[in-house]
Amino acid sequence: MKIIYNEAIDFICALTRFGFRNLKRDPDYPGQKEIEQWCLDYEKKVSPFLLNDIALLSEKTIMITFYMVIKVNENPQIKTVEDFLSFINSISAKTLRDDLIFDIFRKTDVELSVDSIYNIIVDEGLHPEHNHMDEAEFIYGILQDTENFLSRLKITYSQFYNQIFKESKKTYEDLIEKKLEWHNQKFAEDTKTYLNTLGLKSIIGALKDLESITYYFSFFADNDISASWDSRLIIIGAGTDLRIIQQSAKSKSNLFFSCLGDSKRLEIIRLTAQRSWYSTELANHFNLKPATLSYHINKLVEADLLTINLGENKRFYYSLNKASLEEYLKFVSQDLLGV
Which residues, 6+ apart, have CB-to-CB distance to 15 below 8 Å? Predict the structure, then answer.
């Protein structure tokens, strides 16, 4: 079980992220600076007509995006953007319309109206960040004239690929590979913790069978996480690594402050930073019983702040693990300062 990179899905996510380029980002999770720069660079390069079409696909409804992602997930042969564009060109207007009607209403024999679509969007809380009535009107328009919409969709996808994505993918190829490797490492170390940290705790708990889910990685999804539970798929943006790092920082920071919550342990750190001390020597310094000192020493050893070496006369000497202390201080900076 691992996180998969599929270029077609990354392409679909890239179009959506570019469409939302002016959306205010969460200050706690600002995303990747590379994506911010990517948006700024290409906004100046492409025509206002293409920008408008991308905005329509992104801002009015996310349903089309999810429809396309699900189709890629259902067709293992779709791996590249070229595969995806070929697939799009093979879809008929009737197929798209029938699929969308079923996705919205869960049945095909329905009387379409803006109000009926609006009620479903509101009742199911599909896209809470959108204007529901605008979205309902847009979807209704698609269903009334699917052929023209599909034609426009094909042109938009093709232009976005040729004018923006193709060059971008080459620019970020190495970074995509490194980010994917990092996420898969964290995913393999502790899958549940990884998913819980990304905010998927309640849903993962309900599903239980984590192996029934397909996990996709998208560099251009930035810090977003998307999921379709009917299709058993999750898309994890590359920028979500910041959430995991920050969560790790909080855990490490809490452990560090817990160790320093006693003045004696803080003093032990100061002393062992200068030279190695053996246990009796430390006990005498603090005028403590060996058992009491052992409690404090064990706290610091468990936190990897002290190293133990066997010295002369078979004494155990304790030294400060300076590398570990420096690592803790980095986590504290991340946790408290967002550095």
Answer: 54, 57, 58, 65, 156, 157, 160, 165
CA 304 – CA 298 distance, rounded (Å): 10
- List CB contacts of 246: < 8 A, sequence separation 6 or more: 28, 334, 335, 338
Query: What does each C-alpha distance from 171 to 51, 162, 177, 239, 338 come to in angstroms?
Result: 21, 14, 12, 17, 28
Q: CB within 8 A of 63, min separation 6: which ones? A: 100, 103, 104, 126, 127, 139
Instruction: Report pLDDT for 85.
Output: 97
How far is it, in rounded angstroms, from Cα 194 to Cα 182?
Answer: 12
Q: Exposed/middle/buried for 98, CB within 10 Å: 0-12, 13-18, 19+?
A: middle
> What is the reported pLDDT for 56?
82
Least confident of 123-132, 198-207, 235-244: 123-132
Please tell me the distance from the alpha carbon of residue 325 to that of residue 270, in angstroms, as a whole number.
11
Average pLDDT over residues 115-130: 65
Element (H, E) at 306: strand 306-310
- What pLDDT, on a 0 to 100 scale, did the predictor assign at position 129? 52
Cα 97 from chain centre: 31
The two tokens of residue 174 are 């190495």
Q: Tens of pLDDT along 63-107? A: 788 889 999 999 999 999 999 999 999 999 999 999 888 877 777
Question: For tokens 């599903």, what's the residue?
Answer: 207
Pure H helices in 303-321 = none
Residue with tokens 């205010």: 24
From the number of C-beta atoms within 10 Å of its C-beta (0-12, 13-18, 19+), residue 230 rates as: exposed
31 and 223 Cβ atoms separated by less than 8 Å: yes
Can you give the pTM of this predicted structure? Answer: 0.74
**pLDDT at residue number 160:** 96
What is each CA distance from 128 to 122, 125, 131, 132, in whole angstroms?
8, 6, 8, 8
Any residues with CB less than 8 A from the CB of 190 and at least 6 apart, and which? none
Q: Which of 102, 107, 129, 134 lies closest to 118, judged by CA?
A: 134
Q: Is 47 helix (H, G, I), strand (E, B) or coil?
A: coil
